[in-house]
Specification:
This protein starts with a helix and ends in a 6-residue tail after the last helix. Helix 2 links the parallel strand 1 and strand 2. It is elongated. The chain has 2 domains: 172 residues, Bordetella uptake gene, domain 1 (D-Maltodextrin-Binding Protein, domain 2, 3-Layer(aba) Sandwich); 117 residues, 3-Layer(aba) Sandwich (D-Maltodextrin-Binding Protein, domain 2), CATH 3.40.190.10. By secondary structure, it is an alpha/beta fold. Strands 1, 2, 3, 4, 5, 6, 7, 8, 9 and 10 form a 10-stranded mixed beta sheet that branches. 48% of the residues lie in helices and 19% in strands. Helix 4 crosses helix 13.
């Protein structure tokens, strides 16, 4: 028995040493971060921040590849099929949690085919309308929407995205009928709202705030539990007349399933260091984004809760039948 325990201890020590060496030598070449969304949106913007910082600290280039389409399914499926060696990563968002219920026939399953690495950050959304709609408050918008069932529309960057689900949650809670206009990217959504081609949209405060400040759109409410720091004069939707309303956009990093645990752990540590740096925290705060710090196990638990939460919204809003 003593001999067996000794040999087992040697094997375990060898395994730990091998894993430590694997993590220490990683990455051995450029790493690509697949962003399954178009350029210019929060996922793209913050993937580039993370990639730039990891390139400095880990000694290899972290290259951003935008692969938008099919509600993030195209790029996500490409990442799922990649070799699980840590040299391909996925920048994901709560779109992915929603898609687990909304899109039944995906070629991948998020929790089966990916390993959670680390969340990145979260930010509030803001509900905006084009000035041509001539409404100044949330109550005026709700009254107009109720007076014209299906006469108003709202834009999103595609089915299942945070912008889409924020709109559906708003419709469900206010008992209004507003037509959903999906785009292939948040850039297309944003441009058409600014041009007045679409009446309303929910967008991340990180990208829409400059347009609010210059009067290109009118902010009716922010989606968080408290007012957004970058928009202190904009009430929350709960304050403005939709009690209990809450929706945010969050981002995270995942890797293909079976990526070595030591590599996942090192990536988690390095990403958390980036988020916790004074420079990044200050820059993100000015944009309305806050870091998320979790271990891979905590992130996995978080994802399971989010999948259930937004699955319930999808079913309650009747989106499975649309």
């Amino acid at each position: 028995m003593k001999k067996f325990l000794f040999l087992a201890g040697l094997a375990a020590s060898g395994f730990l040493a091998a894993n430590a060496a694997l993590a220490q030598n990683y990455p051995s070449r450029s790493v690509r971060i697949i962003v399954p969304f178009g350029p210019g949106g929060p996922a793209d913007v913050y993937a580039r921040v993370i990639g730039e910082q990891l390139s400095k600290t880990m000694g290899q280039n972290f290259v951003i590849e935008n692969r938008p389409g099919a509600g993030a399914v195209i790029g996500t499926n490409e990442a799922a099929k990649a070799t699980p060696d840590g040299h391909t990563l996925l920048m994901m968002s709560n779109t992915h949690a929603t898609n687990e219920t909304l899109i039944a026939n995906k070629p991948y399953d998020l929790m089966r085919d990916f390993a959670p690495v680390a969340p990145v950050n979260f930010s509030d959304l803001v509900m905006v309308v084009h000035p041509s709609l001539k409404v100044k408050t949330l109550q005026e918008f709700i009254a107009l929407a109720k007076s014209k069932p299906n006469g108003l529309n709202y834009a999103s960057s595609g089915p299942g995205t945070p912008y889409h689900m924020a709109g559906e949650l708003f419709k469900y809670m206010t008992k209004t009928e507003i037509v959903h206009v999906p785009y292939k990217s948040s850039g297309g959504m944003r441009n058409d709202v600014l041009a007045g081609h679409v009446h309303m949209a929910f967008d991340a405060v990180t990208t829409m705030t400059p347009n609010i400040e210059t009067g290109k759109v009118i902010a009716l409410g922010a989606s968080g539990a408290s007012r957004a720091g970058v928009l202190p004069n904009v009430p929350t939707l709960a304050e403005a007349g939709v009690p209990g309303y809450s929706a945010t956009i969050w981002l995270g990093i995942m890797a293909p399933k079976n990526t070595p645990a030591a590599i996942v752990a090192r990536l988690n540590s390095e990403i958390n260091k980036v988020q916790n740096s004074a420079e990044i925290k200050s820059a993100w705060a000015k944009q309305g984004a806050e870091p998320y710090n979790m271990t891979p196990a905590q992130f996995e638990d978080f994802l399971k809760v989010e999948i259930k939460k937004w699955g319930d919204v999808v079913r309650a809003a009747g989106l499975l039948n649309k």
